[in-house]
Structures are given as structure tokens and as C-alpha cells.
């Protein structure tokens, strides 16, 4: 469960969202924009005391971070300072702006700026993968459910049927269920009911690990370091890979 806090109004709604998550047995990550609104450091302490995680959602949220190399480098310094001051492990880029070749420079353990697929984002597309993976030394945790903003604000449709269909598919393939719901957009009773129903639907799935993002990142990184992957053979139609003592055949 992740929540990007985009405005001061969204920050005021955070305690209600945090309480609902806990009520239904979930801990969440709340990502704050460091310099767009006055961040309530007392709220950050309260969230951590409740068992939630805190992450960084960019410095300005102005869409410029990845627009040029100069701006990117100038903001890396601020990101490092906040990562150290707030003692955070994770990052999500505002509006999921991203550049593959620059992501390894982020001063965080993990990033969660790539959707698995999303044609509606400013950078459309995605990584095409429902599992964590590494970009250099940074662990990527893809956003695997359609965003609330996309469903509620852009398409103006009910989110729950879309979410329910996707969680069933992710459960079937053992994928990562990364939910992104903003406190800024959960602004009506109908939306609150849909989000509650999503939490209930996930809670009813057997054997699901309800983890914080940094727990997933550390677990997957340790898992990857213990698994040797060797490319044995490739043809035009398939790759044959060996993982330790197991082999698999993947169509391409």
C-alpha cells in the first residue's frame, strides 16, 4: 500500500487514510513532497510509530526533475539530504517521470516510479513486469494496480472492478500488488468505500504477504543475491535460462 501526498490538503487527510489501512490489517508507505508544502514532521513521527513507512515523492513536484541533466543533478543533492534527514529508503518520482539511465543514481534503496503498464501517465507505457527488479543498485518496485487518479479523475469511472480484476491476475502469477491511492483524491464517500473494499479483497486472498515497500525491496535483493542466473541458450523464439538447479523456458 502506497500513498503519494501531493498537497497540503492531502497531508491533512493522511491520518484518516493511515487509520483505515491499520484497521484492515495493512501498513503503508506515505511519500511526501519535500518542498512543495510544509511537511509535518510530527505526522511523519506518528506514522512511523503506527508502523507505517515514509518515503520521498520528489522535491518540487513540478515535472522538471528528469527534464534535463542539469536539473536532475541539482536536485540529487536535496534528495540525498532529505533521505538522510528523514531516514527513508524509498522514492517515487512525481507523475512517475523517469529516465532509465539515470535511475541508478537515486540515493535510495528502492524506487517505485515505473508502472507495469499505464498508457495514461505523462511517460506512457511501463516496464511490462509485475515483479521487482534492479536498475543498477536500485531495486525497482513497479506500480501494478491502476492509479486512483487515472480511474477517478481521468477516466471518471469506478475503480473497484478494475482493481479486483487486476489483483486476481497478480495473485495467480505471484506478482507484486503495489497500490497507489493519493489522500488528495480520496475525496468522497464513494471513493472511500471503493478503497476499503479493495483492502478487504486483498485481505481475503490466502497467503498474501502484507509488507512495507522497504521490506519487499530488501527481501527481493537478498533473494536475487542468492540466486545465480545463467543464460544457457537463445534462439529467435525463446530464451533458455537456468536458476540454480532449476531451468525454465520463456517465450519472447
Verbal overview:
This protein is α/β, with parallel strands linked by helices. It has one domain (2-227): TIM Barrel, CATH 3.20.20.370. The chain contains 7 helices and 10 strands. It has helices at 8-23, 41-49, 69-86, 148-154, 160-173, 189-203, 213-225, and strands at residues 2-5, 29-32, 53-56, 90-91, 110-111, 133-135, 138-140, 229-234, 238-243, 246-251. Strand 1 (2-5), helix 1 (8-23) and strand 2 form a beta-alpha-beta unit. The longest helix has 18 residues, at 69-86. The chain starts with a strand and ends with a strand. Mean pLDDT is 90; it is low at 228-234 and 239-252.
Domain count: the total is 1
Supply the number of helical segments.
7
Largest sheet: 4 strands, mixed
Gyration radius, in Å: 18 Å
Report the helical percentage: 25-40%
The averaged pLDDT comes out at 90
Order of helices and strands: EHEHEHEEEEHHHHEEE
Low-confidence stretches: 228-234, 239-252
Task: Quickly give the structural class.
Answer: alpha/beta
Shape descriptor: globular
CATH fold group:
TIM Barrel
Terminal Cα span:
31 Å
Q: What top-tier CATH class fits best? A: Alpha Beta
CATH superfamily: Glycoside hydrolase/deacetylase
Instruction: Indicate the CATH architecture.
Output: Alpha-Beta Barrel
Q: Name the strands of the widest sheet in spatial order.
A: 4-5-7-6
Number of strands: 10
- Beta-strand fraction estimate: 15-25%
Tell me the layout of helices and strands.
Layout: E1 2-5, H1 8-23, E2 29-32, H2 41-49, E3 53-56, H3 69-86, E4 90-91, E5 110-111, E6 133-135, E7 138-140, H4 148-154, H5 160-173, H6 189-203, H7 213-225, E8 229-234, E9 238-243, E10 246-251
Parallel strand pairs: 1-2, 2-3, 4-5, 5-7
Antiparallel strand pairs: 6-7, 8-9, 9-10
Amino acid at each position: 500500500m502506497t500513498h503519494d501526498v501531493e498537497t497540503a490538503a492531502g497531508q491533512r487527510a493522511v491520518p484518516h487514510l493511515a487509520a483505515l489501512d491499520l484497521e484492515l490489517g495493512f501498513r503503508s508507505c506515505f511519500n511526501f513532497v519535500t518542498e512543495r508544502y510544509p511537511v509535518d514532521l510530527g505526522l511523519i513521527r506518528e506514522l512511523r510509530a503506527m508502523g507505517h513507512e515514509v518515503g520521498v515523492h520528489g522535491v518540487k513536484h513540478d515535472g522538471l526533475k528528469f527534464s534535463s541533466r542539469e536539473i536532475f543533478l541539482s536536485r540529487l543533492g536535496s534528495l540525498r539530504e532529505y533521505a538522510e534527514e528523514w531516514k527513508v529508503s524509498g522514492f517515487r518520482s512525481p507523475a512517475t517521470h523517469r529516465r532509465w539511465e539515470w535511475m541508478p543514481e537515486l540515493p535510495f534503496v528502492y524506487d517505485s516510479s515505473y508502472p507495469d503498464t499505464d498508457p495514461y501517465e505523462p511517460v506512457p507505457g511501463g516496464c511490462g513486469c509485475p515483479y521487482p527488479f534492479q536498475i543498477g543498485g536500485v531495486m525497482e518496485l513497479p506500480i501494478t494496480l491502476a492509479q486512483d487518479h487515472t480511474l477517478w479523475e481521468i477516466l471518471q469511472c469506478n475503480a473497484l472492478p478494475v482493481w479486483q480484476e487486476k489483483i486476481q491476475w497478480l495473485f495467480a502469477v505471484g506478482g507484486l500488488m503495489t497500490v497507489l491511492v493519493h489522500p488528495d483524491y480520496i475525496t468522497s464517500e464513494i471513493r472511500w468505500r471503493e478503497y476499503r473494499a479493495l483492502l478487504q479483497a486483498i485481505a481475503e486472498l490466502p497467503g498474501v504477504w502484507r509488507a512495507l515497500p522497504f521490506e519487499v525491496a530488501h527481501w527481493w535483493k537478498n533473494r536475487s543475491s542468492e540466486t545465480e542466473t545463467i543464460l544457457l541458450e537463445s534462439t529467435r523464439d525463446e530464451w533458455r535460462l537456468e536458476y540454480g538447479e532449476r531451468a525454465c523456458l520463456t517465450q519472447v
